[in-house]
Design a protein that fits this description.
The protein is mainly alpha-helical. It is 72% helix and 0% strand. It has helices at 2-39, 45-56, 73-87, 93-98.
Length: 99
């Protein structure tokens, strides 16, 4: 009876340690997400918004745009286009794209 209890206790501890890294990774992801929402991209925001602006204005990638990060502008261009349609200005567009 005693060996059965210790085996169950050992299995519980093993399962807990096995899943601990998943919980730590989830917590780190949540912290990183909150950081990015309140403190911006991990890149230069003006650079990212300027690439998105060029896409919205009709510049074609690999023809008029030669920046090495131009394919990353798809996501931001969508939100920048929406912002320009709603407010008809670019004021505060960097702050809008950060959130």
């Amino acid at each position: 009876m005693n060996s059965n209890y210790s085996a169950q206790e050992k299995n519980f501890a093993t399962a807990l340690l096995h899943n601990l890294w998943k919980y730590l990774l989830l917590a780190a992801s949540i912290v990183a997400t909150v950081k990015i929402i309140f403190f911006g991209f991990d890149i230069d925001e003006q650079y990212a918004v300027s690439m998105a602006y060029r896409l919205v204005q009709g510049d074609r990638m690999f023809l008029e745009m030669w920046e090495p990060h131009q394919t990353s502008a798809f996501f931001s261009a969508t939100f920048l286009w929406l912002y320009m349609q709603l407010f008809h200005t670019l004021k505060y567009s960097v702050s809008f794209c950060e959130s």
